[in-house]
Each structure stands twice: as structure tokens, then as C-alpha cells.
């Protein structure tokens, strides 16, 4: 951010009165421009015991497999965002079972939330952001070709929970360490 | 938003190519400025069966009772945000038990997340944004003087769950209807 979105004049970084963090503050109108984390919402879509994954047609991670997910928009809930993204990326209608994972990614200011869901009628396709979509049995999950650490973590938890036949809400973090995204157990 | 935060020129609202929503787009540099919901994180701080509430020293809802909570900052997790806000508003150290409520408030583009927590040593005070803080037994919760619908909903759920001695994660929405914030059951 270089310019004030309210009046168009340059901003500077300083700590406003009564605050304890640097913010972008307008040098003319004094407007304070806060920046906050964003939510990514998606689903783990299941059909007959298999998981629907999408191969990304966009960067980042073009060509890698992902769970359908994307940035939550204003005026919607995380559940609405998750089902919307599942429709947009996989052309799949889903019935949501429960909120499943909440994974913080603080080094990129994001919170990823995945709902466990069932395909409503088994139909799916490839939306504009997907090269293809495909149902994978658990033993066929393409672990070496997954798109993002939060997708991997959610699938790892899902595979464990299928064994236990119990799907509690998991809250977890992905921390950036040693030059790569690593996992905190 | 009236001006581009990247180049300072006026923005207009239009649907960018490949998108399906109106966005603020710069009339000169074509930068697209997305706007996304914000997370409010807080705790339900418990000490010897009583709940710690804060009486607000700031608008909105000056003078009303609230659970300690505030906007999540960049570079933190919701748990870190919740415990930070509890310290800032109630000068209380807490040990978090579990994520407890996730309440969407889509008409104001917010998601409120409360963690169930225990005061670590029973000490608390009034931070800069609080007039006072006080422990309330469940039968003494000031229902008519609560600050926000998400605080009310979280306390209602907590009171029910204390009876059941079971505190699952609750996902809920607060919808704006008929001129007032109402609740969807």
C-alpha cells in the first residue's frame, strides 16, 4: 500500500495513537488502513468413499491437485464460500456434514477452513480454474502432487479419521520454517 | 474505497475479466482491490465456574458487557489473537481448552471465533478498552446489557453446554432481518 484509498494521498507506516502496531496512515487525511488475515474456505467432497480432487488450471501450483477451495467473499458465511468454491472449481453440488479443519497459515496471513461434504448426486466436472477433476480412493491420493500444505494436512487428518470413523473439528497451524512450509505437530 | 492504494488514481467498480463480482479496479494501473471478511477472535474466560466479562470503554456499545475479543491481526493465529485480546482487554492470562463457537455475521462481513479458556491464576483487571471487568456466575449474566449478538449467542450456548457438561464446536450464523440483528435457529 502506497496511497490512501480514501483521499489518494501518500500513506506512511507509523503507530497510531492508542495502538501498538505499525499501520498504514494517510499523511493528509489521517485515515488508518488496517490489514487483516483472509479466510480460504473449501470442502473435502466425498462420493462412495472416494475424495474429489481438482487439478489446478491456474497459478500458483498450476497442474497440482487440490481440494476445491478459495477466498471467502464479503456477505457470505464460510459454509457458503466452501460450497460456492466446490461448485465453481469442480461443478459439484455438495451436502455439508460438518466443519472439519481450521488451519492457520500466519506467515501468509491466511486461515484455511475445510468442511466435510458429500457429493449430492455424484456429478462433477472441471470448472474454469481446474484442468480436470477426479475421484481418488484413499490409497490413490497423489501425495507427491498436492498443491498446498493445508490441503495435505486436511487429507492426512481425513485418512486417519476414516480409520477411526470419527471426524472431529481439527484446529492446526502450518508454520514457515527453514525455507519451506513445514508442519507443527 | 475511492483511490487506488497502489498508484493513487481513482478506482471504479466493475467486474474484472474472468471474475463474476464487482471489484474496485484502478482506472489507470488496472490493479484489482479485493475486499474480504474479517475475523474477530476472543475467549470465554472461566474461573471457578464463573465467566469473566468486560464492560466496554469504547464505541460501539460503550458501557455494555462483552467477552474479550477483537480483530485478528496479520501474522497471528485465531488462538493467538484470542489470548492477546483477553490480555489487552481483561489483563487476564488464560489457558485455552478448545475452539468453541464460530459465528458468521455476513451482513457486516465478519466471522467471530471464541475459544473456551480458563484463567491461569485467577488474576484479571481492566485494560484500556474496558471500564471494568468482573466474574459472573451463570445465573448473574447481564443478558440485557450484553454488547453484541455473537457474545449473547456464545454465552447462550455455553450456559446450555454447562448443563450437558459437553462443549462441542458450534458453527452458527447471525443474520440481519427486520431492522435488527436476529438469530437463525
From TrEMBL, chains A, B:
<keyword id="KW-0378">Hydrolase</keyword>
<dbReference type="Pfam" id="PF14803">
    <property type="entry name" value="Zn_ribbon_Nudix"/>
</dbReference>
<protein>
    <submittedName>
        <fullName>NUDIX hydrolase</fullName>
    </submittedName>
</protein>
<dbReference type="Pfam" id="PF00293">
    <property type="entry name" value="NUDIX"/>
</dbReference>
<dbReference type="InterPro" id="IPR015797">
    <property type="entry name" value="NUDIX_hydrolase-like_dom_sf"/>
</dbReference>
<dbReference type="InterPro" id="IPR000086">
    <property type="entry name" value="NUDIX_hydrolase_dom"/>
</dbReference>
<dbReference type="InterPro" id="IPR029401">
    <property type="entry name" value="Nudix_N"/>
</dbReference>
<dbReference type="GO" id="GO:0016787">
    <property type="term" value="F:hydrolase activity"/>
</dbReference>
<feature type="domain" description="Nudix hydrolase">
    <location>
        <begin position="36"/>
        <end position="159"/>
    </location>
</feature>
